Amino acid sequence: MIRGIVEDRKKRVDKSLISRKFHNTVMAFSVEICKILRKEYGHKGVALSGGVFQNELLLKGIYRELTAAGFRVYTQAKIPCNDSGLSAGQLVIASKRERGRD
Fold first, then answer.
1. How many structural domains compose the chain?
2. Which member of 2, 24, 47, 66 has the greatest number of CB atoms within 10 A?
3. Residues 23 and 59 sit within 8 Å (Cβ to Cβ)
4. In terms of residue numbers, what domain contains 34?
5. What is the per-residue pLDDT across 53-95, written as a single tens digit (0 to 9) for each?
6. For the range 72-79, what are the long-range contacts, defined as Cβ-Cβ under 8 Å and sequence gap of 24 or more?
7. Taken in order 28, 30, 31, 35, is the CA torsion positive or negative?
8. Domain CATH number, residue 10
């Protein structure tokens, strides 16, 4: 992918086309990895979370492709998908660990 971007830049391909190709590649390999994991482990649920999913193009594209492939797709609703959501996860883990000490 990186080589392709470099080659396109050398050929003076329009940056918007390079960007579109990059996003399409990320979407394609993300969905393909999920298909491989489903085949290997039988899981049909996928959680899309993390800062990368602040990118609406990636979020909507991957969501669309996964649902079309028969996956149950989960996204965050109340907690931000970026690093600010990490503290919520840390609180959940700390709470479970603390309860285990009782």
1. 1
2. 66
3. no
4. 2-100
5. 889 999 999 999 999 999 999 998 887 777 777 777 788 888 8
6. 72/44, 72/45, 72/46, 73/45, 73/46, 73/47, 73/48, 74/45, 74/46, 74/47, 74/48, 75/47, 75/48, 75/49, 76/49
7. positive
8. 3.30.420.40
